[in-house]
Amino acid sequence: MVRRYDPDRPVPAEVVNTALGNAIRAPSAGFSQGWDFVVLTSPEEREAYWSATTDPDDEPDSWLAGLMTAPILILCLSDEGTYLRRYAEPDKGWADMDEARWPVHYWDIDTGMAALMILLTAVDAGLGACFFGTPPEAHDDVFEAFDIPRDRNLVGVVSLGYPLPRPRSGRLKRGRRGLDQVAHYGRFGQHPPT
Ligand SMILES: Cc1cc2nc3c(=O)[nH]c(=O)nc-3n(C[C@H](O)[C@H](O)[C@H](O)COP(=O)(O)O)c2cc1C
Predict the structure, then answer these.
(1) What is the 131 CA–ligand 1 centroid distance (Å)?
(2) Whose CA is closest to 55, among 136, 132, 146, 138?
(3) 3-state DSSP helix/strand/coil percent for the chain, to nearest 5?
């Protein structure tokens, strides 16, 4: 993830289009495609996002100051209703639209997969990106600021821009969990000999 961007290098519109074009190739349960993307490109639009999500009396910490340099923000929204309606169709047959039928909320999962496509496109295009969450208490203000229908979920935001040089992520010190820990063969807890 890239959390600080070159403010003097705008992102070409074609790159944003390619990223969004790839996002809509993500898999979705029942091919429901219950996602929307609100793309913020102008300083005023981005400022509206930051003022809806931060306290103007607080000095931004380095994380926030870095992310605020992003020239593009893409709000990734999921739409539960689209899934409930899609799965009420005859080939799926969940006509009662009971949310309890869902093993997990595929609408949020699929929107996350679409966001991953944006992240991967950024890498291919030589850009940097970061997927980050919006604090729940700020959601109402964000929805209001951008006329987002209230039945959507704000799954996350992707910032996009040309990366500035950055120190190696401190999080890497945590170490990546290896296949010998996370891959279970045959049954949970059984790992192949290394
Ligand atoms: C669901 C999800 C939520 C995340 N939320 C944030 C966030 O709020 N802020 C942030 O800086 N990074 C966020 N990330 C990015 C992770 O911190 C990042 O993938 C991880 O730390 C490894 O990347 P890094 O080494 O570049 O930090 C999120 C990632 C995911 C998948």
Answers:
(1) 6
(2) 138
(3) 40, 15, 45
- Per-residue pLDDT tens for 14-73? 999 999 999 999 999 999 999 999 999 999 999 999 999 999 899 999 999 999 999 999
| Lookup result for tokens 């997927």 | 131
* Total-model pTM: 0.95
**48 phi, psi to nearest 5 deg:** -60, -35
- Give the residue whose CA is nearest to atom 31 of ligand 1: 131
Q: Which atom of ligand 1 is nearest to the CA of 3?
A: 11
152-161, strands of its sheet edge to edge: 35-40, 72-79, 152-161, 128-132
**Rg of the chain taking only CA atoms, in angstroms:** 19
**Cα–Cα distances in Å, from 79 out to 4, 35, 153?**
30, 6, 7
